[in-house]
């Protein structure tokens, strides 16, 4: 890699040993992928995937102390993934004790570090930093140093920004240095599709299932998805952005997709059409039977597969404002039809702090609360990461949460039936 | 016995027992339980990986196509290296992915852990090597399986 004189000086220690290690890390990262140069991070804000002060992750916070003690901070303000604990989420006394006294004992230390390193504010914790209410929405073509698989795939695919699937810690180092190695999804060539996905379903595919199927098939490659026009049209409206948020999160967590193109819809597909498809691209045909096959392949790892659901999470990634309203309306309809006032399974809707604040200004906030549903900005994934929750029969319509926890996946329609069903049964 | 030549991502040499994942290795899902609960054997917690689920990973020659999943993956690998709970080496049949590379590089630059990483060993490597075989990694990226 060819470095500028300024970058070389940093590598040689002109701003101290710790900064030299930061640059060395970025250089090794770039060399591994054949990067020829560093390019400036051009977005206004960064985003870090690390949002938790886990006792066992102490080595990460020790490294952050090194950065802070060396006077290094992010050159740009940044947002972070959701916090791991929230009193709004139903917890037993024992669970609270485990969360606060055993697992997340480093949370205060970590959040103090975030302030010193440059987090935007106390409400900057959400995996959907890119929604309007959160304000971290990069423009097309901007270069990012982000990590969080669902946010990166959204920024690349729906917004047309440029970001590799960076790891936690490394994204912060890019923001500190102000430059990142140019390779992969930062290049025109790296953004071309190596898979063509032909969707031949009879009905609009569930976003989380379609994303899962594609992620499992293409892994880290770039898919060009055809056949969605009849359901999604050609405009990136609120509904489509919400659909793509959930779709993308599933491609990224069930596989390792960092960018997808939807024919006629996402910015680069609109501009370049099938010129985005590389010669020799493989083809994957998806129909309703294929989606059923994928869904049936998910293991159920509850101790008792027939257990009555004890908790339901909706919102991994965090819900959009419109998504919360739509769910509220759908639940209202179901409850009325069944003569019920409240959901029959303890349910949590998760959304970013800014979206929750926006919801509070509408009648939907109290409507949702009146159904007995908790509203939180927690990370459901982090919530599930403890031995007590692992024993719980938790259900979700998030394929990401299913992948990383013992939560059982159901489609949105199934979840709706279960949480408004008799004693939590369909 | 068979030898495979790959590209050195993190230099080093070792001999260890192979642990083979034919599907993508989900770093967060594989390590999170072991890290959180201090599992000394570092058993794999990824229920979607039938090759590795519940198998000890500590000190094994982890043979895999690539890593997949959350972008915390590199941070998780770094933490594993900091705690001395890393595999003996990581051997990729495919070119290494960005998250695994991040973790391997963070481990190399910021910790004292020794975890040689070799990639681009080819599909034949993953078809040949089986869990339980002995794997020797050379400084030059030559991997001997027997």
Characteristics:
A: 426 residues; alpha/beta; 4-stranded parallel sheet; B: 146 residues; 8-stranded mixed sheet; two-stranded parallel sheet; 4 helices; 27% helix; globular
Describe this structure as you would to a colleague.
The complex is a heterodimer of chains A (426) and B (146). With 426 residues, chain A is α/β, with parallel strands linked by helices. Chain A has helices at residues 5-11, 17-32, 58-69, 93-103, 107-117, 149-157, 170-177, 207-218, 229-232, 238-254, 267-272, 288-296, 321-338, 353-360, 363-370, 380-384, 387-390, 399-404, 412-419, and strands at 38-40, 46-48, 78-80, 179-181, 193-199, 223-226, 261-262, 277-286, 311-319, 347-351, 373-376, 394-396, 408-409. In chain A, strands 11-10-9-12-13 form a five-stranded parallel sheet. A four-stranded parallel sheet of chain A has the order 7-6-5-8. Chain A has a two-stranded antiparallel sheet with strand order 1-4. In chain A, helix 18 (399-404) links the parallel strand 12 (394-396) and strand 13. In chain A, helix 2 (17-32) crosses helix 7 (170-177). The longest helix of chain A is centred in the last third of the chain and has 18 residues, at 321-338. Chain A starts with a helix and ends in a 7-residue tail after the last helix. The relative contact order of chain A is 0.13. Chain B has 146 residues and is α/β, with parallel strands linked by helices. The model of chain B has no long low-confidence stretch (mean pLDDT 94). The N and C termini of chain B lie close together (4 Å). In chain B, helix 1 packs across helix 2 and helix 2 runs parallel beside helix 3 (98-110). Classes of the chains: A alpha/beta (426), B alpha/beta (146). The A-B interface holds A 21, 24-25, 28-29, 32-33, 49-50, 54, 56-57, 59-60, 63, 103, 147-149, 152, 164-171, 184, 215, 219-220, 252-256, 299, 301, 385-387, 403-404, 406 and B 9, 24, 26, 28-29, 32, 35-38, 47-48, 66-75, 78-79, 82-83, 96-99, 101-103, 105-106, 108-111.
